[in-house]
């Protein structure tokens, strides 16, 4: 849906995403959104505001922001002909990259904290004064464009994460919990809904069950979620099912009817109807298009 302000990312086929030194176009508009994984946002140029945990932060060049899984945030940049907004975004599934941090005890503490901890600090100011973040991101962006860059992508990305967390480690030392006292972050009502949907989107949706599990009235739950995300819970569940259906159609050979059942539409005709309404094509057409696109992107060994 065009007005849906929530964003999910397919971390199954690729456990990380990066957009390095990307310049926003003039039509850029902010919106509340979240990611299943962790996101790092670094500001190269521009200004604006960022809403995080009911607090408004003024964005400036050199700022680094860390968003935890399912944490709603709103980025609004002041974009103009003379005032570009340039940022780097890194999003990843923390479960996948945990193994790259396990050999380093102190760095592993930082990693676990930004993944699951009750972070008291998520905004890091004027990072160029403390660490060569610009250089790290530029190097990674350049390396990702070189011939044969697909080889070793995971290790290269893991190394970038390690370097970035080393850069903020010093600023986090004072707020890291003592060993044995690691507090987990409490979720807002909307974030709790998002997490619940991740676990139950393929099941029949009943508002009363959700409200009871979250210990909140149905009225308050509906209105809070709509106000904070710009989406209804029903619409978001449809989006989440559709995202999963697209992923399965593109990455598996499961029959269309089985995919429909797996994502919450057990009646095949209903699934096809819903899918075409949201994507403009049938599941079979989508799968054929995805396979054709993947074939065109495939690099032959002698071209690598």
TrEMBL record:
<dbReference type="Pfam" id="PF12833">
    <property type="entry name" value="HTH_18"/>
</dbReference>
<dbReference type="InterPro" id="IPR003313">
    <property type="entry name" value="AraC-bd"/>
</dbReference>
<dbReference type="GO" id="GO:0003700">
    <property type="term" value="F:DNA-binding transcription factor activity"/>
</dbReference>
<keyword id="KW-0238">DNA-binding</keyword>
<dbReference type="InterPro" id="IPR037923">
    <property type="entry name" value="HTH-like"/>
</dbReference>
<dbReference type="GO" id="GO:0043565">
    <property type="term" value="F:sequence-specific DNA binding"/>
</dbReference>
<feature type="domain" description="HTH araC/xylS-type">
    <location>
        <begin position="191"/>
        <end position="289"/>
    </location>
</feature>
<dbReference type="InterPro" id="IPR014710">
    <property type="entry name" value="RmlC-like_jellyroll"/>
</dbReference>
<dbReference type="Pfam" id="PF02311">
    <property type="entry name" value="AraC_binding"/>
</dbReference>
<protein>
    <submittedName>
        <fullName>Transcriptional regulator, AraC family</fullName>
    </submittedName>
</protein>
<dbReference type="InterPro" id="IPR009057">
    <property type="entry name" value="Homeodomain-like_sf"/>
</dbReference>
<keyword id="KW-0805">Transcription regulation</keyword>
<dbReference type="InterPro" id="IPR018060">
    <property type="entry name" value="HTH_AraC"/>
</dbReference>
<keyword id="KW-0804">Transcription</keyword>
């Amino acid at each position: 849906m065009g007005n849906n302000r929530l964003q999910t990312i397919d971390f199954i086929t690729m456990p990380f995403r990066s957009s390095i030194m990307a310049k926003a176009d003039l039509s850029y508009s902010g919106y509340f959104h979240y990611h299943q994984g962790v996101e790092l946002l670094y500001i190269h140029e521009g200004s604006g505001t960022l809403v995080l945990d009911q607090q408004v932060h003024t964005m400036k060049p050199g700022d680094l922001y860390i968003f935890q899984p399912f944490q709603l945030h709103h980025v609004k940049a002041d974009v103009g002909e003379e005032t570009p907004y340039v940022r780097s975004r890194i999003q990843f599934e923390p479960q996948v990259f945990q193994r790259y941090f396990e050999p380093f005890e102190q760095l592993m503490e930082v990693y676990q904290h930004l993944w699951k901890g009750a972070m008291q600090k998520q905004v890091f100011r004027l990072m160029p004064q403390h660490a060569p973040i610009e250089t790290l991101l530029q190097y990674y962006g350049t390396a990702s464009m070189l011939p044969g860059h697909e080889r070793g992508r995971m290790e290269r990305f893991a190394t970038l994460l390690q370097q970035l967390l080393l850069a903020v480690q010093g600023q986090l030392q004072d707020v890291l919990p003592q060993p044995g006292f690691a507090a987990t972050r409490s979720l807002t009502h909307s974030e709790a809904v998002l997490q619940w949907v991740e676990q139950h989107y393929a099941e029949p949706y009943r508002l009363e069950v959700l409200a009871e599990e979250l210990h909140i009235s149905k009225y308050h739950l509906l209105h809070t979620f709509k106000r904070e995300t710009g989406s209804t819970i029903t619409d978001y569940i449809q989006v989440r099912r559709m995202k999963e259906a697209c992923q399965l159609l593109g990455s598996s050979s499961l029959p269309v009817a089985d995919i429909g059942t797996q994502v919450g539409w057990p009646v095949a005709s209903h699934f096809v109807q819903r899918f075409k309404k949201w994507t403009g094509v049938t599941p079979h057409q989508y799968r054929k298009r995805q396979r054709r696109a993947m074939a065109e992107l495939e690099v032959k060994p002698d071209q690598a």
